[in-house]
Hints:
α3 (about 130-145) runs parallel beside α4 (about 170-185). The strands form two sheets. Strands 1-2-3-4-5-6-7 form a seven-stranded parallel sheet. About 40% of the residues are buried. It has helices at about 20-25, 55-70, 130-145, 170-185, 205-215, 235-245, and strands spanning about 1-5, 30-40, 75-85, 100-105, 150, 185-190, 220, 250-255, 255-260. The protein is of the alpha/beta class. One zinc ion binds near residues 7, 11, 13, 38 and 225.
Amino acid sequence: MVDYHMHTPLCGHASGSADEYVESAIAGGFREIGFSDHAPMPEGLRKGISMSPDEAEGYVSSIEAIKQEYGGKIKVRLGFEVDFPLFESFDEKYLTDARIDYLIGSCHFVDGWAFDHPAHIDGYNGRDIDDLYDRYYSQLEGLVESGLFDIVGHFDLVKKFGYRPKKDFSRTIEKIAGIAAAKKVAVEINTNGISHPVREIYPSDKIIGILFDRNVAVTFGSDAHSPDRVGYRFTEAAEKIRRAGYRKICGFSGRKRYDIVL
Ligand SMILES: [Zn+2]
Ligand SMILES: [Zn+2]
């Protein structure tokens, strides 16, 4: 099993050292883990959410050092979780940096509003939820279409606080899945949603079914913000994708994708 979505204290809302995450993964019997801390967000937005641009190099070299340190015991991968559309505060050199194993593309903002942030939950008051889903998924389509990323982060994050659309978004999701398959973009099975108000994995069973039908590769991410959360509820998540038909997941090294038998 692999866990490709882990944060570090650099983001300002995670605890535990990178070593502790790795130790936790080794104890859990993982073959690979990947760090994908939040890439630098702009000043004014990033406090308590992401590292600053001048911390990015330190992050990259610290994870590289950890790769060396644990080389014999576990494969450590290096990534970023990058917001789409891209912020200017994210140095685009990392889009083609040979040291990076994979990039997760995520949408945490719609029209500048951090819709998944508990401190900004009042933004839901009086909002048209169908319209929010529309905007979210059109942004996600742009993310997948851009071809900049290897993995889509928490595909249906917009459900986080339990706000559900009235409209059926299956067609939209089928379209995005088709693009993901064509562009070879994988989707992460992110178990963090279980502890959010929505109380379910990202993406939903229905979306997992659509992804399998469209031949979209998947990988696993706990979105751990503390070492004890590495691999959180992966056994049941693996069961879920097996039921959908998946028999393999994928991993990444130097932006190259490979299969791992489930
Ligand atoms: Zn985070
Ligand atoms: Zn995220």
